[in-house]
Write a structure and sequence with these properties.
Layout: H1 3-26, H2 44-66, H3 70-93, H4 95-98, H5 111-141, H6 156-167
């Protein structure tokens, strides 16, 4: 993965992860409320549906920002994909273990009501998954092929003869 691309995607993932992690706490103070909670009020729902996946995405974005070894960049992309996926599907299943404390919204009658789940969960999670999947694919596609040390070129006939010497002839 190219350094500029990985750092830009890492930066975007850090921003999106920070938004996904803090929106449940800062949103009510800005008039962007999903549930009935107050601003900066810690609940199990906000911890499991926002803070945990947001932290995973931020960590993944920071690993992409470093992007020194390709393995760490792929780990960062994987963390961000999982965090983004949890932002999308977590609210759908949260009522199973959170009961009435889950902040799920099935239907909306106004545009502002429809925008809240997009800003809280679904839109943020989908953007994170899209950027992280691009980073994952870029990490997988970036292979620097240097078959021999010091870029020394070798003749394929010489390689075949060495291979037949090692394996023996029929």
């Amino acid at each position: 993965m190219r350094t500029v691309t990985s750092r830009f995607i890492g930066f975007l993932l850090v921003l999106l992860g920070a938004w996904g992690g803090i929106v449940a706490f800062a949103g009510p103070a800005l008039g962007f409320r999903m549930g009935s909670g107050r601003a900066w009020d810690w609940t199990t729902a906000s911890g499991e549906l926002h803070a945990a996946p947001g932290a995973a995405v931020v960590l993944g974005g920071l690993l992409l920002l470093a992007a020194a070894p390709r393995v760490l960049a792929r780990l960062g992309a994987l963390l961000a994909i999982l965090g983004g996926m949890w932002l999308v599907v977590g609210p759908l299943f949260a009522s199973m273990w959170l009961g009435s404390g889950a902040e799920t919204q099935i239907a909306s009658s106004t545009l502002s009501q429809a925008a809240r789940p997009l800003g809280y969960h679904y839109g943020t999670g989908l953007l994170i998954v899209a950027f992280a999947a691009y980073a994952w694919a870029s990490c997988a596609a970036y292979v620097r092929a240097v078959p021999y040390p010091n870029d020394a070129r070798r003749d394929s006939v010489l390689e075949d003869s060495e291979l037949s010497t090692l394996l023996g002839s029929d």
